[in-house]
Amino acid sequence: MKAYLDFEKPVADLEGKIAELRSLGGEDDAVRISEEIARIEAKAAQALKDIYGKLTPWQKTQVARHPQRPHFKHYVDALIRDFTPLAGDRKFAEDHAIVGGLGRFQDRPVVVMGHEKGDDTESRLKHSFGMARPEGYRKAVRLMELAERFSLPVIALVDTAGAYPGIGAEERGQAEAIARSTQMCLSLGVPNVAVVIGEGGSGGAVALASTNRVLMLEHAIYTVASPEASASILWRDSGRAADAATAMKVTAQDLKGFGVIDGIVPEPLGGAHRDPEATIEAAESAVAAALADFDGMEPADIRKARHDKFRAIGSVL
């Protein structure tokens, strides 16, 4: 069943009318009903185009969090052949919030990893809503070390509200684990590409996205903290999350302008949740093009290109 966001109500009403007409249609008035359906479909498509042509940062945040957006597992199932997941950080435990392993992307062996939020109550609890603990980031480091050892490119799919904020995670060194993962991303001698497919929240995202190429889906967000948390800090009022989202410049379009990200992957009209297959195909093309930029480059040159990219962010002539 299709889930609608609050601002999509005009589209929901029109598509509801279409469903009613289809259920009531009979042979006697089939032509008339089909004409009416076509008219309403055109009206719904235009309404969707109008709405998504002027989304606010807060509305984009809602789209980025849509429960029906494709998640890590959908991308892996569609794009990675012979995927073999690897578990555990070899220090404490397995963290299901970050999933990763070996596979083939367009017949090219790669290491792929990313946040998995889950898509129902049971899987969301299992994957901790994509919020990783220290062992998740230490597993990511282990995977990247494997990629370095065997000269495999790394693909990271980022979708997290942030790292897990619990006491146990802090006791086991959450900040250190995020820093080590970020450091590993930056030191790799193989190319790495990250795609923010939903939420890119705080250090939980940066730990996997400090890469040669950082891409974002058109309606994804990338933030230093969630809009709700930022509003609580700035105004002591989480209800001002919409104001915070606007002030923080969280959208792909803003971040591309600032040079924080390298490219925007277009989404189908109405967001990735309306056509996951087309979204995944677009992401595949963008990742393939990004990796191709580093074909034949020496490890030292790959590291330097990454270093120069991050040093240039925020620079002023």
Based on the model shown, name its key terms.
single chain, 317 residues, alpha/beta, 2-enoyl-CoA Hydratase, Chain A, domain 1, eight-stranded mixed beta sheet, 14 helices, 8 strands, globular
List the helices and strands and how they pair.
Blueprint: H1 9-24, H2 30-52, H3 57-64, H4 72-79, E1 80-85, E2 98-105, E3 108-115, H5 121-126, H6 134-149, E4 154-160, H7 167-171, H8 174-187, E5 192-201, H9 202-209, E6 213-217, E7 221-223, H10 227-235, H11 241-248, H12 252-258, E8 263-265, H13 276-292, H14 299-312
Parallel strand pairs: 3-4, 4-5, 5-6, 5-7, 6-8
Antiparallel strand pairs: 1-2, 2-3
Provide an overview of this structure.
- The N and C termini lie far apart (52 Å).
- The protein is 50% helix and 16% strand.
- It is globular and about 70 Å long.
- The longest helix has 23 residues, at 30-52.
- The protein has 2 domains: 6-54; 61-312, 2-enoyl-CoA Hydratase, Chain A, domain 1.
- The protein has 14 helices and 8 strands.
- By secondary structure, the protein is α/β, with parallel strands linked by helices.
- Helix 3 crosses helix 11 (241-248).
- Strands 1, 2, 3, 4, 5, 6, 7 and 8 form an 8-stranded mixed sheet that branches.
